[in-house]
Amino acid sequence: MKRFLQMVGAGAVLTLSVTGPVTAAECIAPANPGGGWDFTCRQIGKIMFDIGAVDKPVQVTNMAGAGGGLAFNHVVAERADDAELIVAASSATATRLAQNAYAGRTADEVRFVGAIGADPGVIVVAADSEFQSLGDLVDAIKADPSAVAFAGGSAVGGFDHLKPLMVLQRAGFTDITKVKYIGVDGGADAITQTVGGFTQAMSGDMSEIVGFLKSGDVRALAVLTEERVPGFEDIPTAQEQGFDVVAVNWRGLYVPKDVSDDVFNQWADRLQQVADSDAWKETMAANGLAPFTKVGDDFQGFVDGAVAEVRQLSQDIGVLN
Questions:
Q1: Quick check: do 2-118+248-316 and 120-223 share a fold?
Q2: Confidence (pLDDT) at 125
Q3: Which of 65, 235, 256, 267 is deepest in the core (most CB within 10 A)?
């Protein structure tokens, strides 16, 4: 779109033709202010403008409801070709889509642009636990599934529940309905259950355990990332220990499905510019995020695979028919 500005001075009139969007891009945070999705919109949008990836500040709209479902439905039903719209997403988005929590909406009704940071998944035990490695824990469950119970901050069928099940499936253990899981109100409560001996392990995110690691209350058996987390290099990955699992609460974006490939690639490029910036590295360090950069078609494939795996796991444990 073009707009025209008239500048009057020294008896002359100069008309300038300005090409580009009249309105600023909008980022929908599918939740109230505060929290992960709001953080994603505000921090990524701010850095995009600060580094010149966009020429206007990104406007943030909070649209809470149905665990992200209200925003998802709004984008699909009303703004399917809006080239100036981006939406904050995370692992919770993919999990809810896999479990049909958005009233029939599916992951292929939008296009996932990328993720550029993540809160790493972790498996931890009490400091005095007999389990010294992830392999020890898996072997104990294989020998007697009732001997180990996990605590996590999500409900049954949520992402914290699914993390250890992914590990066990990679280990060839198929009777996952026998694995005990107790969903409590947040990661701190899950750690309390484990430190107190009510459960033998905790499944959660790195940001939830940092204080407990520093105090010596827990030991982390594995971090569920592709590489060890900066600042916590003493914690081995699950992959290092022979379990090919990456389970992180990624921070990313999707765009409406009907935008052009050029628009999709432009947003992917803008997101990559943020990922490469010093400002984003400082933001990750200040907020306990680990590097996790998957942008463009590579990320779309990652999300498709995650949705398929979560759907199958949810069926296996009876959360989804």
A1: yes
A2: 98
A3: 267
C-beta contacts of 103-110 below 8 A and 24+ residues apart: 103/66, 103/69, 103/73, 105/69, 105/72, 105/73, 105/76, 107/303, 107/304, 107/307, 108/257, 108/304, 109/72, 109/76, 109/257, 110/72, 110/75, 110/76, 110/254, 110/255, 110/256, 110/257
Pairing outcome for strands 248-256 and 110-126: antiparallel
Residues 155-194: tens digit of each pLDDT: 889 899 999 999 999 999 999 999 999 998 889 899 999 9
**Cα–Cα separations (whole angstroms), residue 115 to 13, 20, 148, 309:** 48, 26, 33, 19
Rounded to whole angstroms, how far apart are CA atoms 279 and 302?
Answer: 26
Residue ranges in the chain modelled with pLDDT below 50: 1-22
Residues contacting residue 116 through CB under 8 Å, at least 6 positions apart = 44, 251, 252, 271, 272, 274, 275, 280, 292, 293, 295
Topology (CATH level 3) of domain 120-223: D-Maltodextrin-Binding Protein; domain 2 (3.40.190)
For residues 40 and 71, the answer to whether their CB atoms sit within 8 Å is no
Nearest in space to 91 (alpha carbons), one of 61, 63, 119: 119
Backbone angles phi, psi at 115, to 5 degrees: -130, 140
Is CATH 3.40.190.150 correct for 2-118+248-316?
Answer: yes
Other Cβ atoms within 10 Å of 244 Cβ, number = 10
Ordered by start, the domain boundaries in the chain are 2-118+248-316, 120-223
